[in-house]
Structures are given as C-alpha cells and as structure tokens.
Amino acid sequence: MEDASDDPRWDNIKNKFTGRVDAKGGSERPEVRRWNRQESWGRKTWKEATQSTLPKIIGEGIYGVGPVLAALSAGRREFYALYVQEGLDLSSNNRKKKDKKGFEKVLKIAEKIGLSIKEASKHDLNMVTDNRPHQGLVLDASPLEMVKIMELDPISVEEGKGSLWVALDEVTDPQNLGAIIRSAYFFGASGIVLCAKNSAPLSGVVSKASAGSLELMELRYCKNMMQFLLSSAENGWRVLGASVSSRAVSLDEIVPGPPTVLVLGSEGTGLRPLVERSCTQLVRIPGNFPVDLTASELDGETSSNSDLSGKEFQSFLAVESLNVSVAAGVLLHQLIGKKIEESLPDGHGQTVELQ
C-alpha cells in the first residue's frame, strides 16, 4: 500500500487544513470550534459514565425511614453502611414531622453504633431501590435469618388465650407478604411461619411493605407445611384454614380465644389440597354474594339455570374474593383484634396510619 505522505492529494488536504488553523492550533471557523468543545464534553461524559457512583450493596438494601429505623433498633442484622441522599432538606416545611423525627433517630443510632454513613445522589438511590420510595435512606445490611420449626410446642398455661400464629402456604408476592406481616404485628400475633420453598424472600421490598414490621416480627420457616400443621394440632393448637370451600364455617361462627394457627394460601390458588386437609377447621369470610349462589355450585355441581360448571363459576367469582393480605387483616381482627379492643379502656384502641 502506498504511503499517504507520498500521495499528492494529501499535500492538498494538508495545505487546506493548515490555512484554517491559527498559531495556537485553534480553528478560525466557529462551527469547528463548537465541534471541538462538544468532542471534549463527550470524552468527559464518557469518562464519568465509566466511573459508576452507584452504592455497592454488600448484603441487601433496606430502604425507607420506618424499615431502616426498625432494622437498626431490632439489631437482628449485620450493618455495612447507611446511604443518605445528598442535599436532602430535613426542614419541617418540606417533610412530614414524623418522617423528620424518624430520619434524625436513624442518624443518631447509626452514629452511636459507629455505622459508616455515606452520601449518594437521589438518582443512585433510585437505581439501588429500583425506583421505589426510599425517602432518602438506604441501609446496606445482611439478610434476615429465620429459625427452622417443626411444630408449635404443646399448649401450656403460660400460652394463655388469644395466642395466634400465622402460617403462610406459598405466598409469593412480596407486597402481600409485607402487608400480612404488618397486620399480624399490629394485632399482636405471636409469629409468622413460612414455607421453605415457593415463598417470597424476606427482601427490602417486604420490609418496606410491612412498614418495618418485618424487622420486629417473630419469623420461622418449615420444610413441610402439612407436617407442621398436623404436629401442632396434635399438641393442642386449633388450626384454621382460610378457604372458600362450602365446608368452611363462616367467620362469625368462630369463637376467638383458643391458641390458634391461622393458615393462609397463595394469591392465585389458595390453600393446597393437602394443606387444607391438615387443618382442624376451615373458615371463610362471608361476603355479599348473590342469593342464588349455593354451596353445590361452588363444589362442582352444575346449576340448572346456568351453562357454567361450578368450577368455572368459582373461577369467574375470583374477582369477588379478597386479596390474601386483606383477608388476613379481617381474620386477625376477628380472632385476636376484638379481644385487644375489649381489654383496653374506651378511646384507647390502636390506630394505624397508612403510608
């Protein structure tokens, strides 16, 4: 290949180029100067992009004022770093008074335990939390550890009335799981039992959905839900399975008080058949269903006035069933919430603030 320096065309190009460059090496043409500035800006931007400023989360990110404060207070996790949104205005005019106090408590606890506090941009915190509402706080902490459980201990005098555990059979939605844990903590349930498989992991999403209750609730897991329920029933526990079956007793007929395991199924299919059979009793929440909807239609028999089979009709009515987290709240209030209200003086009942 012929060297470019020997090509006469190169001399012409070089001469034209030399004529457009001043003594300082800059171009006389404005459009060329603009291009040079843009090229330099592009190199700078590319260099900044390659140097990521995203926080490197070692464990898992717990975010939001309530969950972070609960995690730091409970001390069940190992803490690696606390990321605070840079330039965050904590004045009472721009933030809720409750959030401001919670934020200040978080910083105070972090300083007390010697936790590394780092600033990060709102964009970076948004990226870490997948654009979920972090309120300017992300805590890098180890995952929660759960204790394995085979069965609940035999009923004792110390157990007393009103003791209730919630067993969740393959609840996979983290928002539902968090909401159930929040209701269970609010009403004073003794603890939560999860399946080892096919359950939502205890992530920062669950902690946020629980408003921090996840950090404070007693948590257990079992490998065999059916065996756990059967063994607990043998130890004297009443095992109530939430179901829409015609065999289920209306919630109004259930007497609160005896030590109980409340079993809730997955969002789509409810309790698995074997889990349902492991319950000592099934309970349903009465709803505003059509008068002509009979138990036989729900159990699979075809109505003479309809072309739909019972199972098809049941599937059609799925929109009229309650979300599992909503059902949990209703059941918990009936089974232990009313007892709490009766034991408190007038006007001293618990209230909950929605977030």
From TrEMBL:
**Would you say which domain of life the source belongs to?**
Eukaryota
* Name under which the protein is recorded: Uncharacterized protein
Q: Which organism is it from?
A: Bauhinia variegata
